[in-house]
Every structure is written in C-alpha cells, then in structure tokens.
Amino acid sequence: MIDLFTAPTPNGWKASVMLEETGLDYTVHAVDLMKGEQKTPDFLKLNPNGRIPVIVDREADDFAVFESGAILVYLAEKTGRFLPTDTRGRSQVMQWLMFQMGGLGPMMGQANVFFRYMPEKIEPAIQRYQGETARLFSVLDGHLADREFLAGDYSIADIANWCWARTAFWSGVDRAPYEHMNRWIDAIAARPAAQAGIKVPYDLAARMAAEKNGEKGADAFARQARSLVNTGKED
C-alpha cells in the first residue's frame, strides 16, 4: 500500500498518474496548499523541503519518497514498469525525465507565476518564461515528429512531460502550432490511467468549471495561489 500526499498540480499529477498506470493500491491524502499544510511539522518529517507530492511505501518500512521525479523512478523500479532496464533505454528515458525536471517544469512554473499570480504584470519576465516554454514545446514537437513517445515505449518520461505540457493554457502559451506534441498529448489523455490520475486528489478542472460563473473559477484560483507565491509556500 502506498500513501500519496498530494494536491492538484502538474507535479502532483505525475505521482497519481503513475500510481494509476501501475495499478498499485494507494490512499490519497489531500494537502491543502492554500492553508499551508505542506509546511506543518508532520509533513516536513516526510519532505523537509515542504513540497508535494510525497509517497510513503507502507510495504517498505514506511519508506518516504519526495520529489516527483524521484517518485516516478521509485515506482518504476518497484513495479518493473515504464523504465527500461538496459543501459541505453534507461538513459534515454532519464534524459527526457530530466528535460522536464530541469526545463519544462521550472519554465512553465515561472510563466505561471508571472502570467497568472503576480499582481503586477512584469512584461519582460512574462515574455521570457512564455518564450522559453514555447521553445521547449518546439523541442518536444520536433522530437515527436517521427516517434510515438519520447523514449521508445510509453514511460515515466512521457508521464512527467505530459502532466506539464497539457497545462499550456495556464502558462498563457498557445500549443496549437505544435502538431506532433498535440498528437502525443491527446494520445496520453486517452489512457484511462491518465484520465483518473489528473482527478487526484479531486477534479480541479470540473471544480473550476462549476464555479466559473461565481466568484471563484480560474481568476479566483489564481488570486488564491498568489498568496502561496508571495510567501514562498507553493508546492
């Protein structure tokens, strides 16, 4: 049994999609980022960095794993799925996983901050991070022009990059020009495990759509998230 401590963010979805794909039994513990639950003493015992997601493997003496990329690798090695064991195949998957961890995620995250959350619109910063996100999309698009997935068969590299790339609208970046990347996004979105994973710990898209005509919705969510950015409490 796996305990998953998470929130509805791209990094959180990486863990839940992987758990759905592997079929491992897991229990969800929703972490309310707006209330700062990721900074409580109990949570910091699991992840000293105070970020989601975190898993605790109850079958391995309550072993805790933090950092979404490390969680993907741990679960892949635990189940023997979505990560090749041969040196070359493993390296290719790890390269594209690091592409997301070191590039796509951080750049889209900063685009989110400056485009959505900061009360003052700093245009050079917005242009910088949206431009870098678009560049990384073009890298994905070019790589996927002649292959179905990023590194051979479907892998943790696809899960990691997909959970971020699919949220391009939140970063204010148009993904329409990226034909091959969009084909890949749609293919993964059709997987039942991916559909289930992005509804953990709850269906954020449905909740925002239901609240669209009220005081809440996307704009209200951005205003709430702004407090996390300003206080350094984001996931």
What would you note in describing this structure?
This protein is an alpha+beta fold. It has two domains: 2-79, 3-Layer(aba) Sandwich (Glutaredoxin); 87-197, Up-down Bundle (Glutathione S-transferase Yfyf (Class Pi), Chain A, domain 2). Helices cover 56% and strands 8% of the residues. The protein is built from ten helices and four strands, in the order E-H-E-H-E-E-H-H-H-H-H-H-H-H. The chain has a four-stranded mixed beta sheet, covered by helices on one side. Strand 1 (2-6), helix 1 and strand 2 form a beta-alpha-beta unit. The relative contact order is 0.16. The mean pLDDT is 93.
| CATH class descriptor of the largest domain | Mainly Alpha
Please count the helical segments: 10
**Structural class by secondary-structure content:** alpha+beta
Helix content class: 55-70%
Rounded to an integer in angstroms, the radius of gyration calculated over CA atoms is 17 Å
Largest sheet: 4 strands, mixed
- Which strand order spans the largest sheet, edge to edge or round the barrel? 2-1-3-4
Which of globular, elongated, flat, extended, rod-shaped describes the shape? Answer: globular
Overall residue-averaged pLDDT value: 93
Order of helices and strands: EHEHEEHHHHHHHH
Strand content: 5-15%
CATH names the topology of the largest domain as: Glutathione S-transferase Yfyf (Class Pi), Chain A, domain 2
Number of domains: 2
Spans of at least 5 consecutive residues whose pLDDT stays below 50 are none
What's the architecture of the largest domain in CATH terms?
A: Up-down Bundle
